[in-house]
């Protein structure tokens, strides 16, 4: 497989992985709504038999349904935003907002390893001109790589440092990886994304951080 094919497949695999994760989340929310509807049906049958209805139990079930509808609405909004991230190969984005969005997309993967993703708040926000979809793909690769190395607190923190020409996304909390970065990372997929984004991947052993350095203005 040549480099162009590998790059295309990397994007497709990322899109498929995120879509599958979102659909699982949506399915879980619908299952809870369906279960709650079944409870209401049971209450109705009990009332038809002359048994008294408990308003508090009805209220609890209604609240559960409303909560899951709100959850499903948020999932669909994320899915819509993610799908549209392929629309523009070059777009100005808020980097802090992108980190929050990626934390949301990756939380299911992180939950399976009992890790919490924590994007720190950046003062005033940081705007960069970049390829949104490829940047999300690169951040996903970094998060997936770091999760097994999460420390005893099981938190991966993401912070932004803004310079004159570039911004640096710093991943910390996965100290273990600095003692021996596998030869497989960054692999060919990550290198293709780094090249496309004009980015650099750095390992700061002294600070036990993985850093993605991005240009503030990606050239078309």
In short:
The protein is of the alpha+beta class and 220 residues long. The protein has helices spanning 3-48, 55-84, 95-111, 132-146, 188-197, and strands at residues 91-94, 116-119, 127-130, 155-162, 166-172, 200-204, 209-215. It is elongated.
Structure notes:
This protein is 54% helix and 18% strand. By secondary structure, the chain is α+β, with helices and mostly antiparallel strands. A hairpin with a 3-residue loop joins strand 4 (155-162) and strand 5. It is elongated and about 75 Å long.
Structural class: alpha+beta
The oligomeric status of these chains comes to single chain
Percent strand equals 15-25%
Order of strands, main sheet, comes to 2-4-5-7-6
- The arrangement of helices and strands along the chain is HHEHEEHEEHEE
Termini gap: 25 Å
The count of helical stretches stands at 5
Number of strands: 7
Low-confidence sequence ranges = none
| General form | elongated
Radius of gyration: 22 Å
- As a percent range, the share of helical residues equals 40-55%
Biggest sheet architecture: 5 strands, mixed
Provide mean pLDDT, rounded.
Answer: 90
Question: Which characteristics define this entry?
Answer:
two-stranded antiparallel ribbon, alpha+beta, five-stranded mixed beta sheet, 5 helices, single chain, 220 residues
Helix and strand layout, with pairings?
Layout: H1 3-48, H2 55-84, E1 91-94, H3 95-111, E2 116-119, E3 127-130, H4 132-146, E4 155-162, E5 166-172, H5 188-197, E6 200-204, E7 209-215
Parallel strand pairs: 2-4
Antiparallel strand pairs: 1-3, 4-5, 5-7, 6-7
Helix pairs in contact: 1-2, 1-3, 1-5, 3-4, 4-5
């Amino acid at each position: 497989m040549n480099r162009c094919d590998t790059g295309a497949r990397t994007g497709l695999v990322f899109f498929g992985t995120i879509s599958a994760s979102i659909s699982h989340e949506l399915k879980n929310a619908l299952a809870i709504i369906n279960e709650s509807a079944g409870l209401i049906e049971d209450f109705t049958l009990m009332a038809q038999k002359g048994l008294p209805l408990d308003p508090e139990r009805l209220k609890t079930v209604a609240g559960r349904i409303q909560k899951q509808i709100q959850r499903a609405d948020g999932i669909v909004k994320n899915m819509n935003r993610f799908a549209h991230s392929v629309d523009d190969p070059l777009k100005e984005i808020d980097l802090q907002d992108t980190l929050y969005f990626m934390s949301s997309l990756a939380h299911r993967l992180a939950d399976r390893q009992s890790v919490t993703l924590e994007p720190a708040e950046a003062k005033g926000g940081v705007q960069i001109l970049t390829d949104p979809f490829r940047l999300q793909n690169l951040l996903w690769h970094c998060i997936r790589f770091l999760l097994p190395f999460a420390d005893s607190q099981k938190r991966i923190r993401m912070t932004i440092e803004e310079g004159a020409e570039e911004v640096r996304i710093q991943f910390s909390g996965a100290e273990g990886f600095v003692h021996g970065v596998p030869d497989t990372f960054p692999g060919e997929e990550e290198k293709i994304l780094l090249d496309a984004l004009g980015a650099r991947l750095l390992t700061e052993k002294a600070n036990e951080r993985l850093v993605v350095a991005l240009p503030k203005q990606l050239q078309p």
